[in-house]
Amino acid sequence: MSVLYPFIDYILHIDIYLNAFVSTYGFWTYLALFLIIFCETGLIVTPFLPGDSLLFAAGSIAAQPGNSLNSIYLFLLLTLASILGNQVNFLIGRLIGPRVFTAKDSWLLNKKHIENAHRFYNQHGGKTLIFARFLPVIRTFAPFIAGIGKMNMLRFSLYNCSSAILWIGSLLGLGYFLGSLPIVKEHFTIVIYGIIVISLLPAVIAYFTRKPQNQASLGK
Length: 220
What we know:
Layout: H1 4-12, H2 14-25, H3 28-42, H4 52-62, H5 71-100, H6 111-132, H7 138-148, H8 153-178, H9 182-186, H10 188-219
């Protein structure tokens, strides 16, 4: 558990660490932020990387006079990173899905899961991708599952781009316009807590509202 403390401390005080990084490395901060957003959205092994809190902190730093981060450059670069990350994740799922999921009688590796995912993403793929953008961890797996389900690539790309613009634009914008307020700067850690809670809230609500329905169906 002690191994997690540095990571948790980094997330809760991300503004301090990011400010120090900007002061030390300047222009290279753009590359670091690009790689973090790309990996968080593009690799299923790195869903733990900060997304929402990092975007908010980057927006708040961009609003500070005399800093080396430009809000327009941040928006364009991180939107591109998010789009490319999802696209790579989608292609990985599309490539390895048919090879990993077999026709064998296995609960985990069952070809029916591909068929179910394909059916689901044909019907609800667009809104799922947009909704998933604002949910930590889920946004990392959504494009991968869409690829496994062989969602139409053109349709995926359309929702991928639009959801990236909404996600990056909203979090950077909130950080830019609210992060520079004195009350927010003084209680930045509490704000980060709030962002984390709000990000996880829809998934928690969905879990608890679906559970009684599942229990009722089992009782029949």
